Automatic annotation (TrEMBL):
Protein localization: Cytoplasm
The gene coding this protein: murC
Biological processes per GO annotation: cell division; cell wall organization; peptidoglycan biosynthetic process; regulation of cell shape
Transmembrane segments: 6-26
The Mur ligase C-terminal domain, residue ranges: 318-442
Positions contributing to ATP binding: G119, T120, H121, G122, K123, T124, T125
UniProt EC number: 6.3.2.8
GO cellular component term, pick one: cytoplasm
Major subcellular site: cytoplasm
Top-level taxon of the source organism: Bacteria
Protein name, as recorded: UDP-N-acetylmuramate--L-alanine ligase
Amino acid sequence: MQLHNISGVYFIGIGGIGMSALARFFRQTGKEVAGYDKTATRLTDELQAEGIDVTFADGVEMIPSQFLNRENTLVVYTPAVPADHPQLVWFQTHGFEVAKRARVLGIISEGYSSICVAGTHGKTTVTTLTAHLLKQSELDCHAFLGGIAKNYQTNYLSSPFSRLVVLEADEFDRSFLHLSPALAVITATDADHLDIYGDQQTFADAFEAFAARIKPHGMLVAKKGTNLALDRFSGQCHFSYSLDDDACDFYARDIRLQNGLYHFSIVTPEEVIDDLTLGVPGLLNVENAVAATALAVLAGALPHEIRKGLASFQGIRRRFDYWLRSDQVSLIDDYAHHPEEIRATASSVKALYPDKKIVAVFQPHLYSRTHDFYNEFAAALSIFDEVLLMDIYPAREQPIPGVTAQMIADRVLCPAKVCQRHDLPAQIIASGAQVVITMGAGDIDKELPVLKAHLEQWMNEENC
């Protein structure tokens, strides 16, 4: 695929977080860019505001005329798009260059020194924080992010001079096997996407295959406990990291919580970087900061640059994202959609609010994931004081008979029930919640403006 010969790029599924980053890249490099997505979102609104044509009808007649020339048009699609999508089928049957997002990202990254972040959870935060640390250093970087960085209000970052690119290495559909990192981290290998992989061993094997793609003399940082057989990869330098295990190459120490933020030091193989403050809350983010610091240090960032970057980091949309913060009630939104992510988020919010009633609102994502992990979801959600579950968000899937959110609710140890979307505000207020945290990878974030408005109205009425 010769990208320099292409004048237009059409995206099928342009509203996805990874797809939109690619769309922004091509737009910035002077290509004509347009695309389709199923529904309008805040992200598609932003793309349209940037001059990218987005359609929400899947008919072939909706494709702009400038993208009908197969000689200079690249078509990019996400694996979440069904195989019988009319536009996808038309492009495939008319001789166009059609490629999955992962393949295109792999081709783009070949011209750079790639820093790749893989793992079942934590990768979006680690990717974004690594990019921010490099942006605050003399090194700078390009970055394709899996979330909207609040510091930059985008998921694509560019540089006028840097040859470093930071990439989120997605394991879904084995996408990360298109990448060839110079430096990589693996944050977790807890089973997920078993609809793709089938079993835990095949899932773990894919991460080892990813590690094998690290370039000769490259470096890999792995979280302690990932239990990957990395010793057979000769020519690589391997490092370990953890939150606070001093047996690792990178870890935090002297961790203390002050005024809602964590202060700590990070121990590296060469030195101790002290007097650190992380600009976003949550103990899970301290561990993410250790991973990001490891990558930045190995790339060449200096201690004073690390210190500046961690303190100025503003976080990512939908990652421990405050919508409301007050003495009466706080509203937090988080993307957690795997049992271990929920467990980590629950631990973080409990540490911040040890004496307050915490109510979780969880929207399960995918029938297959609910089927595979309903017991694990229930155990993680039981950490909260009360749980409200929404119906399963299907995304790309058809329903599986008998698989419902009630399967989780029946096994949660604290009070729990399935709640319809329109009943959420009343149920939350009736619960007496002092902290509300919404979680899920579906469209639960659409409810946040409504929830915030109801909670603010309730507080005003209480204070009258």
